[in-house]
Write a structure and sequence with these properties.
The chain is mostly helical. The protein is 54% helix and 8% strand. It has a domain of 85 residues: Winged helix-like DNA-binding domain superfamily/Winged helix DNA-binding domain (Arc Repressor Mutant, subunit A). The N and C termini lie far apart (60 Å). Pfam families: HxlR.
Length: 128
Amino acid sequence: MSPEDIPPGAPQAAEHAHGAFENAVDEVGDRWSLLIVWAAAHGTTRFDDFHRDLNVARNILSNRLRRLVDLGILEKRPVRDGARRMEYALTIKGMALRDVLGELMAWGRAWGRKFPAEVGAGAGARRS
């Protein structure tokens, strides 16, 4: 292939796509951020519930929640007017990740590691 065969803008388009992917990974590409967004999309709203449901260390959870709020993926608001307790909710930007998370879940079901209860489940495997 010669340089003349490459369509105009092709290298820039590839660089742009790489940059967009890199931006997405920078914002939500770590394990805990993705799991927090997943939990928020499925109704988890309070710090203690995230902590319990995800089994994440409190300091890591606090850091990730703060970061997701700073990025505009979650919003932090009082549970009710005048309350000191806070809850978290997905913003429009955060809700836009639901389809992506669904695709990751589908990929994980098809290609991810199998857990003991899933391995051989249809072949008479013992379950305890």
